[in-house]
Amino acid sequence: MATSTQPQILDLFAGPGGWSEGLRTLGLRDVGIEIDPAACATRAAAGHTTIRADVATYPTAPFRGKVSGLIASPPCQTFSAAGLRAGNTDLPLCHQVLDDLTRGHDTRDSVRAACTDPRSLLVVEPLRYALDLRPEWIALEEVPAVLPLFEHTAWSLAAAGYSTWTGVLNAADFGLAQTRRRAFLIASRTCPALPPEPTHADGGTAADLFGDGLPVWRSMGDVLGCPPGEVVTRGNHTTGGSRFPTTGPSWALTGRARSWLLRSGQGWKSGTDRSVDSTSRFERVIGEPSFTITGTANRCKWVGDGVEERNLTLAEAAVLQSFPGDYPFQGSRTSRFQQIGNAVPPLLGAAVLRPLVPAALEVAA
Fold first, then answer.
1. Residues 197, 202, 208, 212, CA torsion sign
2. DSSP string over 235-289
3. Residue 6: which of 22, 24, 29 has the closest Cα?
4. Of 138, 241, 259, 364, which residue is most buried, by most CB within 10 angstroms?
């Protein structure tokens, strides 16, 4: 694919388009690099420009002088609590390569052979691209275990003239019905790098002299209504009631509907602290935010008093990740759920990117 002469936003490990959808809501577009054929097909169906290639081997030279923004969400399997965490063993090697890249030495090939999992080194790719392309701004996302590597990357970027911020954001604080926690690195050469301002809070916050306060976290019921296909009766056996499908808004969550649970498909535990969500296996009632939606969401089930157990649907998983319910995910059923679970939620992506791209938003307007 020929690259444009206009400044571009480059998205590494672009997946099905989580960052891309976030940019779309801001009136902006990106060019994604992605190797997975199903994710590439999804991006094509959704209208997102994609280069099908391996980020680790693709040359940076074609983009020199043409990239205004750099986005990256390196694959997290080697660091995720849901996996074998081979990346934890490889952390010292990842730090070594980050140091080497900062000094102008590319030692990826020689160090990769020593890694327990070669995929661990994918986390250094954003720094390689950033130091070669020098974009105006950078936004990276990964599982919280990668935060020390993001802090190291931020140190290297600061030495190259960037303002940086690193930390962990909870998606529920930005309007998602999901307590997904992810590490972020934000960097800019043109403005102070700051985290986005939350739009919601656990339990909400009261109005004061400085503002109206924040609304409570959104629940699964807020964004899904009741589980589609079920029928609920309003009223009771004494007063009677009316039956209606639960594909409607959250006001349908009355009586027994509120007892419905979304339960992880890999075991569960209740009573988990919602503010410290992880990939621990547990359950949530429909009046709460979901636990973290991962690539195994196809094994999550709705259960409840008098309700026949059924699987979480693809559309429900997509909406809980803030994708449109009809987003055109491609590939096998397993692949589509994996794409959803691995993607950056578009709503969270937009919140992170909005402060970084004010000049571009003015042009787009």
1. positive
2. SBTTTB--EEES-S-GGG--GGGGG-EEE-BTB--SS--GGG--S---EEETTS-
3. 29
4. 138
- Whether the pLDDT of residue 248 is over 90: the answer is no
Distance CA 341, CA 327 (A): 14
Max Cα-Cα span within the chain:
77
Residue 240 per-residue DSSP state = B
CA angle 165, 115, 140 (to 5 degrees): 20
Q: What is the pLDDT of residues 71-115, one digit of tens each?
A: 999 987 777 655 556 667 899 999 999 999 999 999 999 999 999
CA–CA distance, 294 with 74 (Å, rounded to integer): 15
CA distances from 161 to 9, 131, 138, 158, 353 (A): 19, 11, 12, 5, 20
318 vs 283, residue with greater confidence:
318
Residues forming beta bridges with residue 244, ordered by sequence position:
232
340 near 21, Cβ under 8 Å? no
d(CA 274, CA 271): 9
Q: Which two tokens stand for residue 237?
A: 């056996």
Which residues pair with residue 131 across a beta bridge? none
pTM, whole model, 2 decimals?
A: 0.86
**Is 19 within 8 Å of 351 (Cβ atoms)?**
no
What is the predicted pLDDT for the residue at 88?
Answer: 79
Domain boundaries, the chain: 8-200+341-364, 220-325
- The CATH number for 8-200+341-364, chosen from 1.10.10.60, 3.40.50.150, 3.40.50.1260, 3.40.850.10, is 3.40.50.150
pLDDT tens digits for range 20-41: 999 999 999 999 999 999 999 9
Distance between CA 137 and CA 172 in Å, rounded? Answer: 25
Task: Please report the sign of the dihedral spanned by the C-alpha atoms of residue 111, residue 116, residue 122, residue 124.
Answer: negative
Distance from chain centroid for Cα 195:
15
Q: What is the DSSP string of 49-72?
A: EEEES-TTTS-SGGGTTTEEEEEE
Burial of 358 (0-12, 13-18, 19+ CB in 10 A): exposed
